[in-house]
Amino acid sequence: MSSVATSQQAPPRPLRVVAPKLALLDSLASRADVFSDTTGVPVSFDLLSFGAFSLRRQSLLLDRSPPNVTHGYDVMIVTPTAYGDAAQVPGKLLDISRLVSGDPSLLDILPAFRAATMYSGGVMAIPLVPAPFLLFYRLDIFQRDNLTVPQTWEQFADLAERYHNGPDGLVGNCNIPVGGTCRGESVFLRALLTSYIQTEGPSHGFLWDPETMQTLVTSEAGETALKMFRRLTAVGPTWSHSPECVQNDFNMGRCFMGVGHPSQFKSGSFGAPGLTRARGKMGIAPHPGTTRVLDRTTLKLVPCDRTRCPLAEEVVMEDGASRLLNRPILLQSTMVMLNGLSPLAFQFYAFQLFALLASASVVGTGRGNGLLLEPNELLPMRLSDVSPDQLKYWVAKGYDPGDAERFLAVYRTTAIKEHIMPEVKIRMASNVTSALNTAAALYNSPATNATALPAILGRLEAALNGIVAAEGGQDAFAQQYRRSLNWVPKTGTGGAASVSPAPDSQHGASSAEVTVALAVAIPCVAADTKCLTLVVTDIYESTALWEKLPASVMDAAVSTHHAVIRQALLVHGGVESATEGDSFIISLKAPVAAAAFCLDVQQP
Question: Domain 15-130+332-399 is classified in which CATH homologous superfamily?
Fold first, then answer.
């Protein structure tokens, strides 16, 4: 038995967080001070304007150098479209599946929101602001005229056309910001295309079929989606939203209906009178879907049935008949992506920091004191935040009781669905966005005759084929595309199999490949000035190894093992309290240091 007493070394630099400037991040930065005070790990938030962040994002993602005190990032706040670029740099994407699966503060995040952070079957980020789009409508007018909330896009368009510029003086539909610099058409067109094409969950794809790699847009689904886009933009705003490109028209009392970001509920509840004219009159529902979907063999639309639409919901239509409705939910996500090229200790610090900041006690309702209730970008991530017993906290914060009750009820039923529209995660995602914007703008132009639709879809298909060619051809692109969808070959039931966020069966070494197993660090009471954290180590299946291998080999292996342990003790400021065979009992000053030590000694 021996002991080594050293002082714990401080991190050589602050943990670097790069992000667009959001009101939420100002609040989180102040909470990070608590983390720094407790752990001794300084945190630097580099919050950029949206323009500056957009300009720097790709170069940061493609940077092959480890971050340092002035360069790069340990953490970046991004959308899933960042995966395509980061995946081009070996080791840049960090699979945190096992860390997430073992952290109780993250396990209660809804499965669909965790699945949105997956790439190539692994969890690559921590959800921060998942945003399932909702249908907002003027409740007072619906009640006055005894209207039924539309379930399909066709019903939605019919109502929007009926009330557009009518006696109430409202625009029929407000879905996208208008203006030359806004370019929001791609999001709405993607929502329409996915409704008609994706029926088996987020791994089913909507641009290419992941099994055959056939493009799916030059089909009756593509024609119907563009026609619907043209109908709905014809009854939308004509004024410009540039340069901010924020769609506040419903909250400003200009719109009869609109499919939009769920934050409209929060932004329409506080602020200047001109921005809260819909307060108290917000009707909220899941956004529309469709009863007809693409048959991928004939490329024609056919009615939903349980075989073709296994995730469809049964709804009662206006004629009283029940039909299956395919309604994949448009989900936009803001997430916390860790840099796999950061030093190991900084990877762990980053995970611990944002596991804390994304916990229910910080970004939830927090029994009336959580950041979720504030007028910021945060939205609920957990069922506990939208349960009926939370309504009192929303009302106490000043939200309209009726609006809040409707929001919580609809958000709750929407967020539990796993049939989501995934964001495009391939490397050339911006090219997809551009191609969709171009197709929508061309067909929506007053100068374009409706007969030009086949040619416009052909141009869109040519742009998608160009992406495939640029990525090295169909075989090479198929690998990237399937990773982006977490796609696996069809199961025996005939459905496309999605990879669920159950990380223990995914990436990383199997238990048979692990040579050193370390117990979880056990923290003691923080108020105790003599508080220590204990770590117990053991060599996995060492008894069996002694039986199978020559003694000389095992002697050398154990000597190497002991040298690694003791070298790491010097680095992390630990004390060797006891040894028993090939097992160590080690004390360190903090749980963070203990866990960093555990990660360090298990690296090859």
Answer: Periplasmic binding protein-like II (3.40.190.10)
Residue 338 has what DSSP assignment?
E
Could you count the other beta carbons within 10 Å of the beta carbon of residue 397? 18
What torsion, rounded to 10 degrees, do the Cα atoms 474, 475, 481, 485 define? 130
Q: Give the tens place of pLDDT for each residue, 192-211.
A: 999 999 999 999 999 999 99
Ranges of residues in the chain whose predicted pLDDT is under 70: 1-12, 179-180, 491-531, 604
Chain segment 58-80, per-residue pLDDT in tens: 999 999 999 998 899 999 999 99
HSE, side-chain direction, 13 A CA sphere, residue 59: 7
User: Given this model, what pLDDT does residue 3 score?
Assistant: 36
Among residues 282, 228, 235, 292, which one has the least CA distance to residue 260? 282
The values of phi and psi at residue 79, to 5°, are: -100, 165
CATH 3.40.190.10 residue ranges for the chain: 15-130+332-399, 132-330+419-493
Q: Residues near 389 by Cβ (< 8 Å), separated by ≥ 6? A: none
Amino acid at 61: L
Please state, in angstroms and as integers, the Cα–Cα distance from residue 526 to each residue in 39, 164, 523, 576, following that order: 11, 62, 8, 21
pLDDT tens-digit readout, 381-398: 999 999 999 999 999 999
For residues 127 and 379, is the Cβ–Cβ distance under 8 A? Answer: no
Cβ contact 325:151 at 8 Å:
yes
> Can you read off the two tokens belonging to residue 40?
């001794």
- CATH level 2 (architecture), domain 511-601: 2-Layer Sandwich (3.30)
Angle between helices 344-357 and 23-39 (to 10 degrees): 120
Q: With H, G, I as helix, E, B as strand and everything else as coil, classify residue 34.
A: helix
